[in-house]
Amino acid sequence: MPIVEVRGLYKRYGDRTAVDGVSFDVREGEIFGILGSNGAGKTTTAECVSGLRRPDEGTVRVAGLDPIADRVALTELLGAQLQQSELQPKMTVREALELYASFYPHPVDGIALAERLGLGHALGTRFAKLSGGQQQRLFIALALIGAPRVVVLDELTTGLDPRGRRETWELIEEIRASGVTVLLVTHFMEEAQRLCDRVAIFDSGRIEALGTPTELIDRTSTAVVVSFRPSASLDPEALSALPGVLAVRRDHDRLVVEGNDESVEAVLALLAREGISPRRLRITEATLDDAFLDITASEKLT
Question: Which residues form the ABC transporter domain (predicted)?
Fold first, then answer.
């Protein structure tokens, strides 16, 4: 059952169309990713869902509510962490949590949330004195403090170090496990692949592909890459003739074979027959990054 429904959404700024006829549903309890490069229309779409921008055309519904007409009711069930936010410079972390908690009938424990996000030691710190990563974690806490049914997270982990990013991912997975629906806007492919149940790939204001990360990765032309340094001379043409191989190239003293699961087995069998050892053998599978590049490149060619 969709909790977010977007139909025929358009948003224009002068002569530029930022969102161009976008339609999608977000199922209750899933993490739905909006993935794209800068200027693809991701943030504008999220802001229309959050009620922060009025669509020029189309409809948006969140739990049956119109984000513009039903703005007050929407604030009780939707939390948002925006791409750019500010607080009063002298406000402390504790004061911000207490203030935002006062806006909701049944807020969560702000101190416990701050501890979970690594802000427990900074409760008395003023906003202006927080690092960029700490400010980002505070805004995530403020988006969650109202115990929302839906939370919109725009560029969730920008500014966080690798450890902070992974701790935040774990928190989001816990939130989803509790039944909260997450609309995640990101350009981090690893983040989308790790967290999202489904992903919409945006390009130039349109959705070019929508599916699970696995479904999108399966659309890539190259599913597996095998690279190695042969212990003896090996004709690249012999590799090109193997089943499942799409391309063979040299990278200095290494051979790189692009293909699929069948090609991996064929390459290893050929090396065994020829008595050639694959030194520094590496086998890497395609990622959402590869899928994104393939999908957006193919759309530009059509």
Answer: 4-229
For residues 207 and 261, membership in a common domain is answered with no
CA distance 262 to 268: 10
**Chain centroid, CA 167 distance in Å:** 15
pLDDT at 300: 54
- HSE-CB at 181 with a 13 A cutoff on CA atoms is 19
Residues contacting residue 300 through CB under 8 Å, at least 6 positions apart: 203
Do 203 and 231 share a domain, yes or no? no
Q: Are residues 197 and 236 in the same domain?
A: no
Task: Check if the beta carbon of residue 18 is closer than 8 Å to that of residue 44.
Answer: yes
Are 269 and 192 in the same domain?
Answer: no
Q: In terms of domains, do 194 and 110 share one?
A: yes
Q: Are residues 203 and 141 in the same domain?
A: yes
Distance, in Å, from the CA atom of 192 to the CA atom of 209, rounded to the nearest integer, reads 14
pLDDT at 277: 95
Its domain, for residue 263, covers 224-285
pLDDT for 65 equals: 97
DSSP E strand boundaries for the chain: 2-13, 16-27, 31-35, 57-62, 78-81, 150-154, 181-186, 198-203, 206-211, 224-230, 247-251, 254-259, 278-285
CA distances from residue 30 to 5, 22, 156, 227 in whole angstroms, order as listed: 14, 19, 16, 37
What does the pLDDT look like over 249-265, one tens digit per residue? 998 899 999 988 889 99
Q: What is the maximum span of the chain, computed from C-alpha positions, in angstroms?
A: 73
Say yes or no: 170 and 90 in one domain.
yes
